[in-house]
Amino acid sequence: MPIQRLKGTQDILPETAEYWQDAEAIIRKTCREFGYEEIRTPIFELTELFVRGVGETTDIVNKEMYTFTDKGGNSLTLRPEGTASVCRAYVEDKLYGQVQQPVKLYYMGAMFRHEKPQAGRFRQFHQFGVEVLGADKPVVDAEVIHLAWEIYRRLGLTGLEVHLNSVGCPHCRALHKQKLQEFLAPRLGALCKDCQERFERNPLRILDCKQPSCREATADAPAITEYLCEDCRSHAERLQELLAAAGIPYSINPRLVRGLDYYRKTAFEIMVEEIGAQSAICGGGRYDGLVEEIGGPPTPAIGFAMGLERVLAALRVQEKLSPRADRPFAVVVTLGERATGLGFQTVSRLRQAGIPVSMDLLGRSLKSQLKAADRNQIRVALILGDEELDRGVMVVRDLILGEQSEVSQDEIVRLMEEQYGKYQKDVR
Ligand SMILES: [Zn+2]
Ligand SMILES: [Zn+2]
Question: Does 198 have pLDDT greater than 70?
Answer without folding.
Answer: yes
